[in-house]
Amino acid sequence: MVAMNSDRPWWTPEAHADRQPLLRARGRIKAAIRASFEAQGFTEVEPACLQASPGNEAHLHAFKTELVGPDLERRSLYLHTSPELACKKLLAAGERKIFALTPVFRNRERGALHAPEFTMLEWYRAEEPYSAVMEDCCALLKLAAETVDNRFVSWRGVTSNPRAEPEGLTVAEAFSRYAGIDLLASIGTDGNDRDRLAAMAESAGVFARADDTWADIFAKLLTALIEPKLGNGRPTLLTEYPASEAALARPCAHDARLAERFELYCCGVELANGFGELTDAGEQRRRLDAEMDKKQARYGERYPIDEDFLAALAHMPPASGCAMGFDRLVMLATGAARIDQVLWTPLSSGK
């Protein structure tokens, strides 16, 4: 592992020399990923960062800006939190296998695994099931480790073998195994039972505030009791999320309370988030409105819904897609301790 003294600005020759091996590794991993996608017939696309809507997940916070036209007319725009909406428009336009390596921007995020600007690797397969992008995730993790000649990946003392067969675990199974909670007992077709989940959480040692919603309690349990256990020794594919926690994913055929959403975990770190994509525009609008209602209630703001995106869904083929945190992938493959170590020009703390 390469050490970095956080007291030195990244641009000093000494600090850069410490980070340089990691940055060189980043470049090799990026080149290997591009070559792998291109060998499979994917087209690399370049989604614009400026969008009418940054995305509509309740707990993601965007950077807002203003477009001033030649006539001085002003229009609010946002830096995207994900290229997802733009990529789906490209599928509607006729693309079938696409990938993007693009900067994305998220406010209120800073830490060992979070940066306000980072690189997202996102890809889509038209007419293919979401199991196909699950396989892609595991192959990319293995490729990253092999590219830098590491047999194992690690973070904060936890090690995983990227070549091992991944563990498949549904969200309900994970809650039962690691928290002793029957999650499905709190999920109904006409709404989730907040008080029932709160009682089960309390029995597991996680306490809900009076104003916590079902989703808040779910997130607390996932963060405190489950995520640290995932991807230890081998990668974990966490599947079948509650439909209420998967606004852009289609329902599971066997249980409409659940959705075709998965996440890849390694060493307790979430690396990727993928879906079997929802293409019903009416249902999509309802879900995005519900997400913005949550945001309004919790944070006192809401973002516009991209009407072009909803219109494009009528032309979008069935598809599966995935977003992977490229910087986190590099961190695990190289053993870096903080995301700033693998960013070429990390944002200064401003202190």
Would you give an account of this structure?
It is a single chain. By secondary structure, the chain is α+β, with helices and mostly antiparallel strands. The chain has one domain: Bira Bifunctional Protein, Domain 2 (BirA Bifunctional Protein, domain 2), CATH 3.30.930.10. It contains 9 helices and 16 strands. Helix 1 packs across helix 3 and helix 4 (171-179) packs across helix 6 (214-226). 42% of the residues are buried.
**CATH H-level superfamily:** Bira Bifunctional Protein, Domain 2
Question: What can be said about the biggest beta sheet?
Answer: 9 strands, mixed
Radius of gyration: 20 Å
> Order of helices and strands, N to C?
HEEEEHEEHEEEHEEHHEEEEHHEH
Domain count, please report it: 1
Q: For the terminal residues, how far apart are their CA atoms?
A: 27 Å
Low-confidence stretches: 1-5
Q: Name the structural class.
A: alpha+beta
